[in-house]
Amino acid sequence: MEHGAHESEPLPDLPAAELSAATKDAEILLEVNDIKVHFPIRKGVLIDKVVGHVYAVDGVSLAVKRGETYGLVGESGCGKTTLGRAILRLIEPTAGSVLFDGVNVADLKPEPLRQIRHRMQMVFQDPLSSLDPRQSVQSILEEGMRAHGIATTGGQRLRDLLSAVGLPTSALRKFPHEFSGGQRQRIGIARALAVDPELIVADEPVSALDVSVQAQVINVLEDLQADLGLTYVVIAHDLAVVRHISDRVGVMYLGALVEEATSADLYASPLHPYSRALLSAVPVPDPVVEDSRERILLTGDLPSPANPPTGCRFHTRCPWRQPTKCDTDRPVLTEFAPGHRVACHYAAEIASGALVPHQVQESVI
Ligand SMILES: Nc1ncnc2c1ncn2[C@@H]1O[C@H](COP(=O)(O)OP(=O)(O)OP(=O)(O)O)[C@@H](O)[C@H]1O
Ligand code: SF4
Ligand SMILES: [Mg+2]
């Protein structure tokens, strides 16, 4: 949730031209412009030949304000992790720019990139495989601090980090396999915090955890944000988690954003057929509403990102698909209402009810 602006460090010495107009707005910490990550598909034993590409992220633009939590949702394989990694330049984007506090991260040479890295950290999707099993927690935490020139002597900072994520000091001497899933995720969060970041990209921070433990880890993230003024991009496929934690939400489908709104607006009035289908699958606590509500069933599998459909990428599964435009023209993410963007040629007609879904629509009674 939004808090006061984080005290930011001086920018690396970069030309003023690298500051975009939008990020001169002091409110914006992260600005992503038309970013693409296309993984080459290679074939051949003797001659290495590129025979195609996986269009994992294919033109995403978004901005995140300081102190805000931006949730990213979408089905498995839609490109969430790839987008998160590209934002932090843990993988090289194929095209597009990422501006962090006005600095174009994609253009940075190794030393300025190293300097800026400690300000943007990632909590990885799988807590076990992202922690080196041969390193103690102390050594895991100190590794990043040393790399960024943060003093590791004395141990007080390490104790403070553990206490911030709710782990006892005795954890320092232990190894990742000695912890539960929830505790390991806390270690992952402490590792990110160790270098004093302003932005944390948390990739499915609770999806591997039991529901009761999920709430505890979410509370840790929220408390840290309140105390430190952190900015979060939280990736999750669980809509309930995203709704709870996010100020704004972006819905991804096959490498692109199809809708973006405040959490409240998205859940109250989703505009894109894909968002509607996703939300219609979330159970409602009120049994009367739950029994009478409509579920929008999507037909067909998620198409391969190596061979995405033409036009609107959702047209092969869309219950509102129209004979014109849907399979030929790719809709652009456009502001439909203040702060609410959607990429659908027929968003207005669908919202007004002028168009109704013509495919399977099942009432759950
Ligand atoms: N290094 C890579 N080389 C080739 N293809 C990749 C690579 N990394 C990811 N992909 C492909 O890119 C697409 C997007 O993957 P990504 O992991 O970003 O999705 P995701 O939304 O995070 O999925 P999940 O919810 O399962 O974590 C997938 O089709 C995946 O197979
Ligand atoms: S553009 Fe057409 S196919 Fe795509 S979501 Fe809108 S109605 Fe469906
Ligand atoms: Mg992922």
UniProtKB/TrEMBL annotation:
Biological-process GO terms, alphabetical: peptide transport; transmembrane transport
Keywords assigned by UniProt, alphabetized: ATP-binding, Nucleotide-binding, Transport
Similarity comment text for this entry: Belongs to the ABC transporter superfamily.
Protein name per Swiss-Prot or TrEMBL: Oligopeptide/dipeptide ABC transporter, ATPase subunit
Molecular-function GO terms, alphabetical: ATP binding; ATP hydrolysis activity
Pfam families: ABC_tran, oligo_HPY
Stretches assigned to the ABC transporter domain: 30-279
Listed PROSITE patterns: ABC_TRANSPORTER_1, ABC_TRANSPORTER_2
Nucleotide-binding keyword on record: yes
Presence of the UniProt keyword Coiled coil in the record: no
Organism: Nakamurella multipartita (strain ATCC 700099 / DSM 44233 / CIP 104796 / JCM 9543 / NBRC 105858 / Y-104) (Microsphaera multipartita)
Domain of life: Bacteria
